[in-house]
Amino acid sequence: MSCWMPGCPALSMCRGLAALPITCLERAKDLKTRLGILLHRPELGHRSGSSSKLQLGSRRRNSSQEVLEWRESFDQLLKSKSGVNAFHTFLKTEFSEENLDFWLACEDFKKTRSKTKLASKANRIFEEFVQNEAPREVNIDHETREITRKNLSGATSACFNEAQAKTRTLMEKDSYPRFLKSASYQDMSRQAASRGTSKRSHT
Hey, what's the signal peptide range on this chain (predicted)? Predict the structure, then answer.
């Protein structure tokens, strides 16, 4: 807008702007740029939200596949973190979660590298799970218990191998089949299967 007439508002504005220091004009431009960025941020947020939804969808598909794989073998269940959590929750209902807790403690024990820590951890695991009338005593035979006790004198990462194997077999033969038949797992597998069917119908 331009005007040559005296008293024109546009002319007054132009004169006013010309009188302003250059730094003020630069600040005004900077402010305009920042406002433009802020106005576009909701759009950016929308895009990142869409991306996170896609990632969440991907995780759901992966977990659905995992749930169905748990019934293939006990190994598949133990390989899955969410599978171990679901199995642990089920074992609590049967008051036998100490078997899985012992197996997990043995897995962690095998990763110990320090000989000092190895010995102290071995004694702690033995006292908690293996010795007679332990607070969370696992169901193993007397012979295995005694072999494990002797192994403590020269603790190595393998000193619980036999007791761990016996406990694992017990879970695989006894608790695992009941877990697969449980209402909680049946419900999870139905949901997983329906999500899989829904996914295929949309592709």
Answer: 1-19
Residues in the chain predicted with pLDDT less than 50, given as ranges, are: 1-5, 10-11, 13-14, 17, 25, 35-62, 201-202
What percent of the chain has a predicted confidence (pLDDT) above 90? 61
Non-local (6+) Cβ contacts of 9 within 8 A are: 3
End-to-end CA distance of the chain: 57
Name every residue whose Cβ is closer than 8 Å to that of residue 17 and which is 6 or more positions away in sequence.
25
Contact status, residue 112 vs residue 159, Cβ threshold 8 Å: no
Give the model's pLDDT for residue 26.
56
Q: How many CB atoms sit inside 10 A of residue 97's CB?
A: 17
The encoded tokens of residue 86 equal 């679901």
How far, in Å, CA of 108 to CA of 113, rounded? 11
Packed helices 161-170 and 142-151: angle between N→C axes, nearest 10 degrees: 150
59-193 to CATH, choices 3.30.10.20, 3.10.450.50, 2.60.34.10, 1.10.167.10: 1.10.167.10
What pLDDT, on a 0 to 100 scale, did the predictor assign at position 183?
Answer: 96
Distance CA 52, CA 95 (A): 39
Cβ atoms of 52 and 45 within 8 Å: the answer is no
Which runs of consecutive H residues, i.e. helices, occur in 71-175? 74-79, 81-93, 97-110, 115-125, 142-151, 161-170
